[in-house]
């Protein structure tokens, strides 16, 4: 039964992306008085990127009324693992069709569905939170415009460089493992032949990493043949990250180089390297993609998900490398679990203690899972072209030991 004392809490949510929107929806439905602060001056733009979610989780989101039943996605039943060789330059050697079960959707489709369900008057754009102070009663939230507002509870859903995480754990640092994810997309209609992309997620191994290619619905949320996109990412080593993250106008960036920012010579070099790393079919997709962009890969375990009345959720908590493709899922799960904890305990302290213990364990487990995948698929990737299907299966099972538990742990209660 939902507890009346906790349902009337005054809650601030910092950040209005996937995690922040979910927290705002869930806590407002519980009866909390929610204010969401998003630093962007306008509604978040479609990032054009794809995300993968287990279909069971999609069903759970639909069942909870977080997203509509009509959210478009593609089902993927395999990781099609290939490796370029001299004898197979066009598609590479097919090393393994690894069974999988993933719904592939457009980040914008998920975000827009969640955003549409945040109640009117809750979401405030152009509001950067600059400081959080635990007060005698609740938390004081300081905004860039000089205002300070007091809340019973603050949920920091402010992403991987979270102010909330830095406030709670000032000495905690993100770990950079030495590689970045270079991303792009291409309308499937621009490809000479898109049919080979129809079967699952294509994973292309090469000596210092791998590439991922898959279809996602178009930015207008359509799965139509002419609207769909091939979304791709390649993990590539970058030893000197600071030098690499300087844009074409000489400005230094942290975390990502957005579309249109990368120096043209860098993009040209990455495309030329892709010719050697990838089979021709995939290198052609990369070559034809414009305004490609880069995310630095980081990871970070956290000692806790809350201190006092400040909570961390989504990428603001434990931050995993993106190999598991479970970042959005984890953000939604953190928010759903917070509502469940508030609804099922009579006092705030017990609710937050329980939630903190569970999210810290599962969040840090996801980081370790991402690190295992990073080691297996980037830092120590073996030559798949020389391996039999049985050897591939043995290698994966030996390298990645916590996958099965992971998705169960992320499945939100419906
Ligand atoms: C390279 C890469 C690849 C990924 N691939 C996948 C994938 O395949 N599948 C998947 O599920 N996930 C993927 N993710 C993760 C996914 O993008 C995130 O996990 C997901 O968007 C949830 O993030 P979030 O809402 O916690 O944080 P974010 O999406 O980062 O949002 C944080 C929000 O907080 C706002 N904000 C920040 N600071 C402040 C402040 N001080 N005041 C107010 N607002 C603030 C920001 O403007 C932003 O809107 C990937 C992430 C990366 C980096």
Task: Provide tags for this entry.
alpha/beta; 414 residues; globular; nine-stranded mixed sheet; D-Amino Acid Oxidase, Chain A, domain 2; binds flavin-adenine dinucleotide; 18 strands; 34% helix; FAD/NAD(P)-binding domain
- The low-pLDDT segments are none
The whole-angstrom Rg is 21 Å
Main beta sheet: strand number and arrangement?
9 strands, mixed
Overall average pLDDT: 91
Going by CATH, what is the homologous superfamily of the largest domain? FAD/NAD(P)-binding domain
Summed up, the domain count is 2
CATH secondary-structure class of the largest domain: Alpha Beta
DSSP strand tally: 18
In the CATH hierarchy, the third-tier topology of the largest domain is known as: FAD/NAD(P)-binding domain
Which series of helices and strands comes N to C? HEHEEHEEHEEEEEHEEEEHEHHEEEHHHH
Coarse structural class: alpha/beta
The bound ligands are: flavin-adenine dinucleotide
Number of helices: 12
**C-alpha end-to-end distance:** 15 Å
CATH architecture of the largest domain, please? 3-Layer(bba) Sandwich
**Shape, please?**
globular
């Amino acid at each position: 039964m939902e507890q009346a004392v906790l349902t009337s809490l005054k809650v601030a949510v910092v950040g209005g992306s996937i995690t922040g929107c979910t927290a705002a929806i869930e806590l407002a439905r519980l009866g909390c008085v929610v204010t969401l602060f998003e630093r962007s001056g306008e509604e978040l733009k479609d990032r054009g990127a794809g995300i993968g979610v287990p279909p069971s989780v999609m069903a759970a989101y639909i069942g909870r009324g977080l997203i509509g039943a009509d959210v478009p996605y593609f089902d993927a039943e395999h990781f099609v693992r290939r490796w370029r060789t001299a004898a197979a330059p066009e598609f590479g050697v097919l090393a393994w069709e690894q069974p999988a079960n993933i719904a592939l959707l457009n980040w914008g489709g998920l975000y827009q569905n969640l955003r549409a369900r945040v109640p009117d008057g809750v979401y405030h754009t152009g509001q950067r939170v600059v400081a959080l102070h635990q007060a005698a009663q609740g938390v004081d939230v300081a905004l860039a415009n000089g205002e300070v507002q007091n809340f019973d509870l603050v949920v920091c859903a402010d992403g991987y460089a979270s102010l909330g995480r830095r406030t709670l754990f000032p000495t905690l640092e993100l770990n950079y493992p030495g590689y970045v994810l270079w991303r792009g997309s291409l309308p499937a209609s621009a490809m000479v032949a898109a049919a080979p992309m129809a079967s699952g997620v294509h994973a292309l191994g090469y000596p210092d990493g791998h590439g991922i290619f898959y279809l996602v619905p178009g930015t207008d949320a359509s799965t139509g043949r002419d609207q769909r996109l091939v979304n791709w990412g390649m993990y590539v080593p970058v030893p000197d990250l600071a030098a690499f993250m300087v844009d074409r106008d000489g400005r230094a960036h942290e975390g990502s180089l957005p579309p249109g920012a990368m120096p043209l010579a860098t993009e040209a070099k990455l495309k030329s390297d892709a010719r050697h790393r990838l089979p021709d079919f995939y290198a052609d997709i990369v070559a034809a993609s414009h305004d490609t962009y880069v995310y630095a890969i980081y990871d970070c375990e956290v000692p806790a998900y809350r201190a006092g009345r400040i909570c961390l959720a989504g990428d603001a908590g434990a931050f995993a490398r993106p190999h598991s493709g479970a970042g959005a899922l984890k953000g939604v799960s953190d928010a759903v679990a917070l509502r469940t904890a508030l609804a099922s305990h009579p006092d705030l302290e017990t609710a937050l203690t329980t939630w903190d213990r569970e999210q810290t364990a599962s969040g840090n487990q996801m980081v370790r899972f991402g690190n295992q995948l990073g080691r297996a698929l980037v830092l120590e990737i073996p030559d798949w072209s020389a391996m039999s299907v049985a050897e591939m299966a043995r290698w994966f099972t030996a390298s990645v030991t916590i996958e099965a538990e992971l998705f169960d742990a992320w499945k939100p209660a419906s």
